[in-house]
Every structure is written in structure tokens, then in C-alpha cells.
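Chain A, query sequence.
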Amino acid sequence: MLPMTTLVIGGAASGKSAFAEGLVEASPAPHLYLATAEAWDDEMASKIARHVSRRGDGWETVECAHDTEARLKSLPEGATALLDCATLWLNNRMMAGADVVQATSDLLEAIAESPARVVIVTNELGQGVVPADAETRAFREAHGRMNIALAAQADLAIQVVAGLPVVLKGATP
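Chain A, predicted structure.
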């Protein structure tokens, strides 16, 4: 059985979301998709639509771009939830001017207090080039610290590279 907290990390378009969806689908229902993305433009709207169609029936989507922590704490016991994704969650917080250290702490607490199993998808941003501007460097640094904290708290951590899972921590069910 899937542990209470699983982290799935990988680069952009690495297959991490599809892999995480498979983990959730192999776990007890109900299957909840905690959506942190917002359709800022046509490209993002198209990406969201692809994710929705790939999931198909059997999923309940919970839009939570701005109230993720409350939603995590209110999930039904025994459910399995996919938080997709922590990168966009952090972006939402930074764009709103939030204290990202406190926000990350609040997210970790909400995951720990959730009565559901939670699979968290996040991007690996630290293996690329150093961003040219201070704002993007600050995001990358905050994101790296968030990922370290999420991995430390997770029972299972899996990196997805080219669609292939590599277990970093814990044992797969």
C-alpha cells in the first residue's frame, strides 16, 4: 500500500505527473486531484486540459490554487490525493507576496495533518543554469528549500527521469 506521504520529483515534461497519477490510481479510492495551477494563458489552459483528459473518470478535482493547506486538512480519511504541483503552489504564494518560509511550513504541517494519503508532485529546478535575474534566483532558492523539506517529510520519494522512476527514499508498494 502507498505510504501516507509520497514525493514525486522530476524535471519539466519528465513524466512525473503521469507516474504520480498511476500511484494514486493503484491506491484506495476516492482519488482526489488537488489542482494548484491557474490558466494564465492559452498554453497553460491547454496543459490543464491534457492533464484532465488523461486522468479520465474516477477522479474528483479540487481547485486549490490559493487554499491548498485548508483543503489538505479537510480531505476524507482513507482517500488518496494528488497535489499537482508544489512548484505552482509556491509560485502562487510568491506572486501573492507571502512569506515563503512560513507558507512552506504551513504546507508541510497541512500534509502531516491530512487524514488522506498524499502524493506531491514537484519540479527539480536545481540542475539547470543559474537564472539571470534576482527574482527567478529567489524562486529557485525557495523552491529548492521547499523540495528538501518535502523530501525529508515524505515516507517515499521518487525521481522521474524520462518517464522512468528512481526511488530516492523508502520502498515502493
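The chain has one domain: 5-169. DSSP finds six helices and seven strands in the chain.
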